[in-house]
Amino acid sequence: MPRKRSGPDIPTGSVRKDLADKLAAELKGSREFGQPVIYERLFRTGKARVTVIWDGWQNLPLQERTATILRAYELAEGEESRDRIALASGLTVPEAHAAGMLPAQIIPARRKDDPLTEDQIQQALLEEGGSLLFDPSRVHLYFSTPEEAEAARQRLIQRFPGSEEVWLINVEITAQDFAKGQDWATVMEQ
Questions:
Q1: CB-side neighbour CA atoms (13 Å) of 119
Q2: What is residue 174's three-state secondary structure?
Q3: How confident is the model at residue 12 (pLDDT cuts 50, 70, 90)?
Q4: CA 8/CA 107 separation, integer angstroms
């Protein structure tokens, strides 16, 4: 395979100023939930991989997403912070879910006699960070871990007392996850 090198100043795409400003505000703030969700993975080298899951990326090319993330870090924390990012990725909630990054979901199971209306449920899911990009008529709320989903479920229960049975958590299990958790799937030496 050919080896292709480029310098550190290669163009990364144009910056969406409005999104960079919103993302910079998120970096400076300390919200517990909602969109965007910013995942930072720090490496021993001092560099970081940043993934921003946000429906605000819809219809933006990947290069613009990357450039916008880098600019947001520069606005929020300075050039040094921007320069420590080795890889910046922006994904919408459906893209992150399709990539297997969001396997846990809160599913509302509203019954006729529940005190919550459908509108209250949809609004609460949206405020927790849900997405309308899967289906504009129904909010989907996904998380990277069951623990994150449970924390959101507890916030929803606290917000709507007596709604424990409305909020269900579903965790998608891959074939690899299934095999890891099964004794019969491991090789036994005889």
A1: 0
A2: coil
A3: low
A4: 45
Amino acid 182 reads Q
Q: Which of 123, 133, 126, 42 is nearest to 91 (CA)?
A: 133
| DSSP category for residue 42 | E
The reported pTM is 0.84
Q: How many whole angstroms separate alpha carbon 72 and alpha carbon 76?
A: 6
- pLDDT category at 5 given cuts 50, 70, 90 is low
* Tokens standing for residue 55: 């429906």
Q: CA separation (Å) from 92 to 49, 86, 99, 111, 160?
A: 17, 20, 11, 30, 28
86-101 tens-digit pLDDT: 999 999 999 999 999 9
Sorted by sequence, the CB contacts under 8 Å of residue 184 that are 6+ apart come out as none
Local structure of 89: helix, strand or coil? strand
Distance between CA atoms of 58 and 158, rounded to whole angstroms?
A: 32
Q: Which of 43, 62, 139, 127 is nearest to 52 (CA)?
A: 62
**Which two structure tokens, joined as six digits, stand for 22?**
């919103």
Is residue 99 within 8 Å of residue 64, measured between CB atoms?
no
Q: Where are the domains of the chain?
A: 17-91, 99-174
Residues 25-59 pLDDT 10s: 999 997 889 999 999 999 999 999 999 999 999 99
99-174 folds as: Alpha-Beta Plaits (3.30.70)
